[in-house]
Structures are given as C-alpha cells and as structure tokens.
C-alpha cells in the first residue's frame, strides 16, 4: 500500500510570517491573514493560495490593474491589449467602509486603540455594512491614518482657498510629559454672505478656528516658532498675502518671531496680542487679592471631589432648608468669569457651609472639611465675599463677554478703557483690599491699550484696533478719524486703490447710515462697497477673545499617532 502523501499546508507558519513575506500586500489581524487591498481573509497556510489570490480579477481591479484581456470572452476580435488607467482617488464622501470608520473615530476624538476591545470589535464587524473583517488597531493606524490625515488637509486647503483672508493664532503649551507643544490655528475671515437659520434670517456671526498643526518642539524660541508657522501655512496652502493677523500671547520669543521672521513675509498682517491673556491676568489679580475666598473655593472643591456622597447629602441639606439644591459651580481654567461666579455662590451659602460641614466633621477627619469650617466662620472671608459682590459683577461681565468667539476687534479698545476708568474711579472710595485690586487692574489695562507702551504686557496692534473702531458706524461718527490714519494702521488698505476710494466714500457719508452690529452692517454694504467690506470683515475677524478649534489635525494626531499624548 502506497504511503499517503504529506499535506502541502504548513501548520508552523503564522499570519505574521506571511505578512512579512508579502510585505505591503497582506497584513496579520489576530489569527487571520488579511488582503490589504480587498480587506478579506486569505488562507495563510498555503503559499499557492496567496499567489492565486493575487492574480484574481477582483484583486487586480482593486489595484487598478484589471486589463481588457482579462474580461469575459467576446465574439469581437481584440486588436489592442491595453491597461485601464487607475481609478481616481475617491472623494471624502465615498470612502471605503474601513476608512470611513477610522475617520469617524478621529473626528470624534476616540483613540483608535479602542477598536481592539473584543466587544467593540465584534460589534463593528457584525453591524457596520461592508466592513468585512476589521483589522487590528495597529493595522488601521499604519494603513489608514495617513489617508484620513491627507483628506483632512485637503478639506482645510479647499476651505482656506475659498476665503479672502485668514488670521493665524499661535499658542504654546505643554503635554502631560512636560514637552513643548505649539498649537497653530487658522481663523478664516467672515464671509460677506454669512450663515442663515431655517427662517432665512442672519444668525449671530461667530469666529471659527481650525487647528491646522500641533507641533512637538524640542526647544521654544523665535526660530522654531517661525519655522513651525511657515510650515503649517504652506501645508494647507495659505498664501502669505492672505494672512491678516498673527495672534499670540505676550512671550518675548513671539514678538521676536514676528519682527525678525514673519513680518517681511505676511505683508498684509498685523501682530496682535490676545486680549484673552490680559484678561486672564486681570482674573489672577482678583484671585490673589482675595486669598481667603480662593482658599474657600479650593477647599470646597476638594471636600466634594474626595467624597461624592457628600454632594448628595449637601443637596438634601439645602432642600430641607427650602433652598434650591444646586452644587457650587466649578472653577474652569478656560473661563475666567467662573471664579467670580463661584465666589458669588459661596457668599449666598457661607452660613450653610458652616452648619453642614460641622456635621460632616463628626464622621470625617478630612483636612479639607476642617478648612471649610474654619474659613466659613472667619470674618475676613465674609468681608472679602461682600467686597467681591460689590465690585466683582462688573469685572465678571467683561470677562464673560470675551470668553465667547465673537468679533470684538471694533470694541476691545473702548471696552478695556471703560473698565480701566471704572476701576480708577471706584478705587478712590473702595476699601484697601478692593482698591489695590482695582488699581492694579486699571494699570494693566491702560498699559495694554496704550500706543507703543514700553511695558511688557502691551498691545503691538493698538493703532490697528483703534482704527477698527471706525468700522462701527455708531463709534465712527464720534471719532472722526481721517482716511490716511486708518490706511496707515490697516495693512490690507495699503496700496489698495479701490479700498481707499471706498473708505473715503464711507467716511463722507457717515451721517446717512443707520448704526447696527458691525458685521451685519458691512454685509449689507457689500454691494455698495465690495472691496472695503472684504477688508473690514477681515479686520473684524481677528480673534481677540477665546476661540475653540472646530476641526483639529492635532486631534487626528492625538488619536492616531502614538507619540502625541493628551494635553494638560
């Protein structure tokens, strides 16, 4: 009897071995070998099966190599044998299912590694149409993340190509490993048409910021910042003449980056230091002056976060006293007014804290609870809260205004001057603690809006912002600034013959205009002053307040790239 021939399958070879043998063609996903082009499992034990799959019409069609000679036989004679040109890249709305899935995870800021969870992996394979065998996260990251990134860059490039001007916002921070991270945002200028709601009415104009790059810097200086900004703007094809503003904080290397590197390139731009930074300093002045209030806020947050059940007991305590059962508002780092809101709440509940936390002391040895009781019974704390209630409301209102992504370049100078004048007047009759805070705040604000101030925390674009007030018809009637002064302060009007002519016509006819919100006003005048309206809307689109990134390439990086980690 003849011996049975040995099996030609290899039981020792693994999918990883085949993936290395056919690098770039197949990839391993768990215990399966997946064709990277067809996204289907293939028998990895037989090399002949793999080679047979590579010459199938389906596989070659996926690669764009399907030829006329491989079509079904036809009765007509073939004269020429030619290859069909590769199909053009699909648009973003016709992505393959797996690519769509990776894109969805990226846009939702969900780490792609979550796909490896067995329950989620099985659910996606069973319920997402045409996804087939879903690869592991490492495969998705290596094969699809770059495609998603490129599509995102293409989308931003098209958007910035359609807008007239762009403001560049740069901010440096650190990640959880204390590495320097440079965030570069682009804010397109407001359009002449403007968005409308379902009733076809114009809605409030808000600035939209797009985080186009998040750079990891080994060292932060004017050279590395300049290089990163130029590289980011070139990546999304923002033309240098389209840049209308370079918005930064007050760091010395930011000033140097503008003067030494970027100013000769961005010829139509001004260097603007964000009002958000000076307003955060204003908030710190009040927090440092009223130290016991700050200690009370921190102690209460610690006592509630350390014992979540204490929150429920405090709600019940307030409800039994016939009060609204609400918890103290948390202080948020990106909302400067939240500290004043929290202080206002604590003033109303100071006696409630003393009673409630004395009861908590009987069952808890927490130092935070003891500190709350001590501060709640302190006369200094009560006095500071009363002073804040008198003066803090005016400051809180101004801070809250600049926490929103609204157009403020036409009013920021007047707003900060009015706040400074109010503080100077109140300081003359205020108590010592309040007077010190009011004077310090007024000094900082006056330095910020002063022309060519020698102080560090100043506004290099003070003349530009003063000229922007003329674009508010309600202010322009009183200011009466001439066209030459405006043109010298606004680079977009330099050598702009049509814009200058329309500016002169606008100034000559100020009396006939009905004042309204500046952005809405200039959108209505777009037909009459087309070039001037474009310039004015670019000036009004310079972000001086808080902005949030609407779409972020750094989010794609944080999700898809292992070397980026979460920010502090």
From TrEMBL:
Tell me the leader sequence span: none
Q: Please provide the Gene Ontology terms (biological process) for this protein.
A: regulation of transcription by RNA polymerase II
- What terms describe the molecular function in GO for this protein? double-stranded DNA binding; protein dimerization activity
The superkingdom listed in its UniProt entry is Eukaryota
Pfam families hit by this protein: Dimer_Tnp_hAT
- Which InterPro entries has this protein been placed in? Cggbp1, HATC_C_dom, RNaseH-like_sf
Q: GO cellular component annotations, sorted alphabetically?
A: nucleus
The coiled-coil regions, if any, are none
Q: Where is the HAT C-terminal dimerisation domain?
A: 515-559
Q: What is this protein called?
A: CGG triplet repeat-binding protein 1
From which source organism is this entry? Petromyzon marinus
Give the source lineage, highest ranks first. Answer: Eukaryota, Metazoa, Chordata, Craniata, Vertebrata
